[in-house]
Amino acid sequence: MKQKNLALNRTIFVILLLLALLFLVPVLVVLMNSFKGRFYISETAFLPPTGAMFVGLENYFSGVEKTEFFSAFGYSLYITFFSVLFIGLFNSMAAWYITRIKSNYSSILYYLLIFSMIVPFQMVMFTMSKTADILHLNTPSGVVILYLGFGAGLSAFMFCGFIKSVPIDIEEAAMIDGCNPIQVYFRVVFPILRPVAITVSILIAMWTWNDYLLPYLVIGNKYRTIPIAVQYLRGGYGSRDMGAMMAVLVLSMIPVIVFYLSCQKHIIKGVIAGAVKG
What we know:
This protein is 74% helix and 0% strand. It is mostly helical. The chain has a single domain, classed as MetI-like fold. Helix 2 (58-67) packs across helix 13, helix 8 (168-176) packs antiparallel against helix 9 and helix 10 runs antiparallel to helix 13 (242-263). It is globular. It starts with a helix and ends with a helix. 29% of the residues are buried.
């Protein structure tokens, strides 16, 4: 029996290892091509950059200059940071209210948030962009408000599932000791929500950092985020600087990869707690 389990575990390990390598192939291809001359990429996309193909860091300097990368990086960082902060804070508070206050209003609010998860963005994007113009939300701060709405469904769903597993006795004990609801939330509830809060933060950060369509529709070329800046490397008549594009893509992946690796130990724990418990 032990030998069968050992053989099964080894088989699963080999399969998962092969899948991991398969998923890493596109990243490795982008990394290799970021060191090649632009005229070699199309014909030798899967070959390492050797000989005349290798141009060192030339593509990186060219991509940073052409895209105004540091400006785009600043806008992307601003939008991502405050989107993660506000979605994590406000939706966890909303989920706590929905879970603890049993009423028709809280039930309707919960199902409206769940319903928002199944509405495609393409269905509302034109109405949303027009509304954003009317309300003067066509700024990086305005985009954060829009992300707060679009990210509410998934984050509230995960927070609600996790909060249902938290004993209410802890909160009642804090209130007996003299805490008001705000103090109970920040001193008792929010620290307990750390695993699912980190999971939500990772998912929202990857979404907002890589999102192209919503910032393009709302703020366009005036406040270029990194995905928009990469798109502008495409020139007229189909011309495009593939070398600079690959280099900028590598630079744009680094912050998300670092953030994910620093928090990844919490993601499985938070997803299971938020989706299964309760």
